[in-house]
Structures are given as structure tokens and as C-alpha cells.
Amino acid sequence: MSASLTYLGHCAFLWRTELGRTLLIDPYGDPVDGRLFLRAFPPVESDVVAVTHDHFDHNELDALPGHPTVLRGAGSFRLDDLSVTGVMDLHSGRSGQRGMVNIVFVVEVSGVRFCHIGDNRHDLSCEVRQDIGGVDVLMVTVDDSSHLLTNEQVDILVQSLSPRVVVPMHYYIPDLTAVESTLETPDGWLATQSSVRRLGSPEVEISPEGLPANREAWVFDAKWGD
User: Fold this and answer.
1) How does pLDDT run across 118-151, given as a tens digit for each residue?
2) C-alpha dihedral sign at 155, 126, 213, 4
3) Which class is 3-219 in CATH?
């Protein structure tokens, strides 16, 4: 049993289950026309779309075709062999200090548990940590400008959730992210990791048997069109 995971850039990921069900999390948009993203979000079809919070670089639903089920809050959702649980917490930094909610999504397919952290703070409460549960693959915001989290805060979050695989997101990608975004690459953080696997592809098949015995950071190429 395995599921495919595709990185679409920024914080956008697409899962496809063995039964063909699809889940998209955090499609991005750009209200200032090229200041943040150099390309529009691709017209990705999906059965379910989850939005971690209402910032424009995470909630571009208008770009999507069809009529997917939209998940925006805490709670559990199941569709055939796709299971999604939303855990409510707070955005990182000043937005969180002002009370902005962020939904952490836990996705379970083919026996693998993924955690998409969104723009969440790093200092999880015991209750939130318990609600998230076990994590095999963690998608976490990493960039050398510390736009959302410092490298030290990323490490605290990783240690708290103890995943087998850590996938950076929300960083500068040439030909996709504008320099004006002020985002940088995750290379500084990656240099501190004991094991880094550069996939050389935007897509990977993941099964329980394919998970590493010791923690690895996986770096995807980004796919923004066919």
C-alpha cells in the first residue's frame, strides 16, 4: 500500500490515495500580481481541499476547478481511504499573538500519518501535541529569513512531534517565488541536518515500508503545471 505526495510549491501539497481520492492543502494566491509569486496556482482538481488559515498564500480556492469539499476547521473527515483531522492552534509570530487561528491538518493514507503544520507556532501545548498524535512525515515552514520560525524553533517543533521525515515548505523557489517576497531558501537549516535527501522530483510514493529508520529531511522539486 502506498500513496503519492506531490509538492506544488510554497505550502501546497497534493495527496492521491490508492483508491484515487485526492486532497489538496493550502493553494496559494497573490493579490499584488507578481510581488510574491511569479506564477498563478495551477488548476488542480481534488476531491477535498484543506485551508490551514485565511492568508492569501494559503487559501486560493477560486483557482480550483470543480466543487471540492473544503475543510477549514477542527474535526475529523473521512472519504474512502483518506482520513483528515484538523487540530486548532495559533499562527506563529504576531498573527498568533493577536489570536489568529491556524489549523494543523493530520492526514492518514496507506498507513502513513502526515502532519501539515500550516503557519503554526512552534511551542505546541500538551493538549495540541496529544491531539496531533503520532507523525511520520511533517511539513514545516523553514526559510533562512526566519519569516515564520527561526531554525531553532523549527528544531523544537520537530523534536516535539518526532517525525521520521521532515519536509520544508514556505521558502523561496526560483521561477515561482518573487524576490520581493523576502523569503529565502531553507539551505541554512538543511545544512544543520544529519541526513538530507533531495528527491529531484515533485512527486514521491510513500508507504510505511519506505520510511527511513532514522530521521531525514526530504527536499522536493516544485511542480506548478503540466
Assistant:
1) 999 999 999 999 999 999 999 999 999 999 999 9
2) negative
3) alpha beta
